[in-house]
Each structure stands twice: as C-alpha cells, then as structure tokens.
Amino acid sequence: MEKDKYTIIDVLMDIHDGECVFLKTDTMELVNPMDYLRKYLPENPTAEDYEKLPSKKSLNIYPLPSYEEIEHKNIMSEYVHNIYDNKEVRKELFYILRNHNYMDKFYECLKKYNLYDDYYNYASDYYNFIFNDWCEKYNIKIGK
Predict the structure, then answer these.
(1) In a domain, 10, yes or no
(2) Residues 63-111: pLDDT tens digits?
(3) Is residue 115 part of a domain?
C-alpha cells in the first residue's frame, strides 16, 4: 500500500509506551505543546510571561489517546487469532506479542510476510473508533 498522506490511523498505530502525542485540531498538526507555546514568549521570558501563556485548550491542542488507552496488543492478538491461518506465522506473531516491546517487531514481522497492508485495513476500523471516541471525549468536531 503506497500512501500519499500520514493519517490519524498511522499516528495512533505508532504511539508507543511512554509517549504522549498532541494534536492541534484546527490544523490537524502533531505538535509539541512546549515548543508551540514558546512562540508566545519574549526572548527572555519572566515567570509572569509564563503565567500569561494561552492554554493548550484555547489553542486547540489536545493529547491523543495514550498507549494504554489504545490497547494495541488486543487488536493485534485479535487479528492473529481470528484472521490469519498460517500456523507458523501465527506462532511467530503470538510469540512477538508476549514481549514487552512488541509493536515494532510485530509490524516488522507483518511486513516480512507481506501482511502489513492486510493488518492495516483490518485495524483501521478499530483505530477510527478510538479516534472518534477521543473526539467525543474532548467535544472536538473535525472536518465539519
């Protein structure tokens, strides 16, 4: 699957343990809030300058769902268990999922067996559901 754009599904699929990713919803940009807020500060900011900074919410900057909220392992396990029937490949994928840092290895294995596009299509509904649920949580209207 040759893709022209990096989608919200790509972003959510790539959120790892310990990461916090922020989305500026009016421009649909991934941002680092501290870097973004720095442009509102003078060259040598004082404590008062920091107090006057706009809030992330007023700038439409929200944290995307966390690794824990996304539960990648569940969708990966479901795919391997319910969709794919080659026993040797299934065994290899399930073995990868037993590890703590499984995501990149899982994706590499899918690519090795030319299954990544199939997995991506399968998981898209799940990641879209996570994103829509996140939009509802923050009362965000995208694209309308």
Answers:
(1) no
(2) 999 999 999 999 999 999 987 688 999 999 999 999 989 999 999 999 9
(3) yes
